[in-house]
Request: fold
Amino acid sequence: MRQLLLILVMAGIMAGQSGLPHGPKCGLSDHAKFAPLKTTTLVTRPDLQTVFTSEDDHFMVHYDTTGDNRVDLRSTRDDRAPDWVADVAGALSRARDLLLELAYEPAPDDGDGKYDVYLVSNLGSGYYGVTNPVGTDGDGRIISFIKMDNDFSTDELFYTFGIDGARVTAAHEYFHAVQMGYKAVSGDVFFYELASTWFEDIAFPDINDWVPWFRGAGSFGRNPTQPLAGTDGYSVAIFGHYLTEWYRMDIMLHLWERFQSQSALAALRAELAFQGGSLPGVWINFVAGLFLNGTESDYHFYPDQILLYPPVIDPPRILSDSLTLTFLQLREATANIQSFQMPGPSNLHLQVGPVPPSFTARLVLDSDGLTPYNLTDAPMYLSGLNSLSKVVVVVGAQSGELDLSATVIDTSYNIEFALDKLGPNPVIIGRSSFTRLNLTYRVGAPSLATRHRLVIYNLLGQEVYRRNWVRDVGEGTHTLMEDIPAMRYWASGVYLLTLSIGRHTLTRTFTVIH
Ligand SMILES: [Zn+2]
Reply:
């Protein structure tokens, strides 16, 4: 059996959404940089005390019952094997079954027909697991074995502890073992990690270890303008979900088949073209969609987007009348992103574009409702915006640069303050004892810590109700629901209501009827 020149190790230093520093999860990248790493503890095949054979007979899980590598020995099984080990074996079998169901080839056979997995401590702080190539089979496919942490203890730097950490790692690493059967790792590490981290959520949808990796240190979520091929892979697992949701589940398999004879980007470019898409277009649509992360949005392409934070981008520029947004050095699978905000007042009208057809541009409006818009060669108009409206524009193309004009027009009434509605009017005090007044008012300019006062007088000029409060007030329309239980004891007749906000006061009358 020919020994590999390249030894593959999965690792990568990361930190999560928490911002905590994090050790490597899995490290193909170390490999590409420092290969061969034959001598490190990561890649040596350990000699452990005991072995458990999975129920499907496809895995041998090696473990220790004493010493540093010792696993949790508790057992509820007839054969007295540790539940932990049986669970890991079950997770490996589950991963294998799923991948075979998805029509992948199983990991190449190392001679005995059983894949070896070793449960060890001290893989390195934060290492979840590692898949090590050890040679090739008769067809020249890479044979490997897996080492993974023995306990996923809270003393180490994992995002997911205990058996759940072991389960997703079994899925992640076993998919690497399968991947190596398709192509030995010599580059495009991101694609191996993207696929394996994506597969964790396919195999174990309820364990979301992949989520904090999205916005860890050095992640795609922290730098969404980095090229896809320059990412760590872990943080773009969500792109795997985008592809399989937008196209079909088997698109990932087709990508692996194409990847055998070309680069990952070339495989993506060819497969997306085959499916009627384009890599620049698909990438921009994907990145724009990520700005809906963390919201309840009908526009999510994957339900778990609600668990993710939006990508981190530069603070918005202020658009006061007209602005040219210049997107330079556009490249495929790389998003160029700019955002802007308007200084107010309300009821602004925005014109953006046009965008020539060779570019893909999406506009995401982050205000009342998050909505992605497609910018085309006709200008886009948006109305009803205010100073809270934040606009994110995501642009991509095969190459070139784009100047995009954005113009904002103030179409608001020249009104500083208006009391538009007061109801119900009349207030009928009867069986329902309904004593709530609804007021709708408009404010022209925002102000902080503003004094509000609501006073009601009867026709004799006597004050019958007063409430004072202080709050920040934004420009635009506001609704106030004022419950006044004492109203049911007021005499029938006409009442005068004054609403003061800062230095403005407006007056309306209403009638109470018994
Ligand atoms: Zn990995």
